[in-house]
Predict the structure.
Amino acid sequence: MNPICRQTCCGDAILSPIGRCNESSRHFQIEPFTSSGRRPVNCGESRSDWRDRAMRIQIGCSYLLVFCATQLAVGAEPPDPISARLASTPANSRPISFVRDVAPALTKAGCNAGACHGSFQGRGGFRLSLLGFDPEFDHEVLSKASRSRRVVPTAPESSLLLTKPVGEVPHGGGRRITRDSEVFAILRDWQLAGMPSASNSELTAIKLTAQPSELVLMPNQSQTIVVQATFADGETRDVTAWALFDARESHIAEISRTGKVTAIRAGKTAVMVRYLGQVATVNVAVPFSAEPVAIEFPPANFLDELVLAEWQRMRVPPAPLASDDEFLRRVMLDLIGTLPTPDEVRAFATDKAADKRAKVIDSLLARPEYVDYWAMRWGDLLRSHRRYLGDKGLASFTGWVRQSLRDNKPLDVMTRELLTAQGNLYANGAVGYFFIDEKVEDLAETTAQIFLGVRMQCTRCHHHPQEVWSQDDYWGLAAFFTRLESKDSGAYGSRFGGPRSLRVAAKPNPNRPLAIAVAPKAFHEPLPTTDPAADPRVWLAEWMTRADNPYFARNMANRLWAALFGRGLVDPVDDLRATNPAAMPAALDRLARELSDHKFDAKHLLRTICNSRVYQLAGELQPTRDPDGQLCTHRVPRRLTAEVLLDAVSQVTGVPEAFDGQPLGTRAIALADPSFPSNFLMTFGRPLRNNACDCARGGNPDLSQALHLVNSATLHQKVISDTGRLATLLKANKPEAEIFEELYLATLSRRPHADELAAIDELMREAPSRPEGLQDLLWTLLNSSEFVFNH
């Protein structure tokens, strides 16, 4: 064995190449980095942490890793150079493998991507499995389909498999590879070897690892990821050259095709690594400062301690604590969807008790508006609507949700009741869940998304490109619902008002077929066969809500957090997966455990979060720290939801909104479904409740909303109403200073500032009349960002 390179580092090692390489393209490169994710350094640097140093040596398509073991004192120079020696057995002496060589090569070239031949319909009459998830299918298509027209084992360089991607024959996908590329060599060698198929032991990689798993880089620093796959026969290969990489937030850090991560600006992101149906994640942190920052932040509870640790790691200080006025407005909007009244603002401001914030949180959780507001949120999630359930069915279903909230029913109990419901819809409102989605496919998707935070839609047709879930997992979950049978009561059933009922049959319902015949299983965990006659949904519900279930508690904790902060610790809130890690994983794990330890008491977790100093931080309209809001260093303003905003306008003006068929004074948050016509609610993003995605509710401000507030006849009539708040104040002959204060307290939950009072005085002087001047003031306040946003 002859030395292949010498470079200053620690220790000595014999290196064995991993994977096949094109001999003519071999080259050698040494790149030092730290196993703990610290920045790369140049060999020969004097550093106290050389014991963590590693060498990544690139040999063509092979990547070899050596970790230094020698411990050095601070300031000491590295010892003798490392001698990296290549083992005598060349890598390309191994028999070529379809699974381990050909499938990854096709994936790297993009041939089996969703936009190319990996789409469900294929391209140009040629279809491969998406990202090579089904090697057996791909081998059959390449070697035998269309009378083997794509391959020429005796002269592979003239085969369509090679002449099309190199651009020598017209190809809809354009030129994908070159003749001197590794992909070309692999596809050529595979044909020359007789197109061997996959053996059972190599059908899949059983483990994928990416090193380092955690990266901390400053802007403009780079580091390369090393990816290894372990197969069922025990072989481990470096597959960095054949893995696919994707950075979630590419504005924070970008990733090259070869796995090189480059930090762009401060923040947190994750790099997803894919190879042969397996995924791995590398978390990337880009601190906000090159030096540690001093943070004055006395924690109020465990949540503050965990978040503080993350701020210290990211070197970013938090905003100061919110004022009493800010806090009261925020917590009332977040917990009960209601603005504080002027009297409530005054009372809170004059309360000198040290625990007054904790007391107001407790009082809000006990108010009837809590039921109205959270029933609306659950209604959005469960998509309760009369188009699915009818008027009486909707009343029964909504009544069950509201009573559950009124009783503070534990979330696990509520979930089990919902998923195992059967009987008459009018007698058991929870049954309505199975009439909103009646197809087993839809039930599988919405159940996973609502209660587990897992999006399974992709796996209806193919392996999930960002997760480990397959079609078997999808249809295994759907199989839990195949025995459900529903019927209408009476000769004409629910069309004419009769109730619908649901029962569990002894055998699968022929009207609920599965595209793939599989036994019920929940994410690789099969249904026990102890009692074939038992309702399989009971086991599913118990499995979902078990204390050791890795999804349910984290999903519910994440949803409650998102309701208070406007963004989940995992974002999107209904997309929990390994390749979409939480911004602050320790905080989410601890919140999930807190929820589970307290018997899934939603009010307890809401109370815990609201009592934290993290929740009570001041907002910043134009934040310079943590602009993405990942680390909760400040309150990120968000527009009030449609129903809350309309109720706020009605409350401020003193003129209730009228809804068809509802008593005057019915609040928008108390409406059972979105079937009540309202141009205001539609403009501001009231969801139609036709899908379970959290994105269904429009939350971003847009031009139509601004124009609606400026030109709305509804808003104008409320402002000038003879029976409204302003008219009442004028009739009482209140002094202008008191009226100014009352309007500010009613809209912004604070008193006007000195500069605002000066502007108001000028407004009143220029107004044609006193009432018109005050109407202009109220209209201006209702159109202000401070009113329209929760901050």
Summary: The chain has a mean pLDDT of 85.
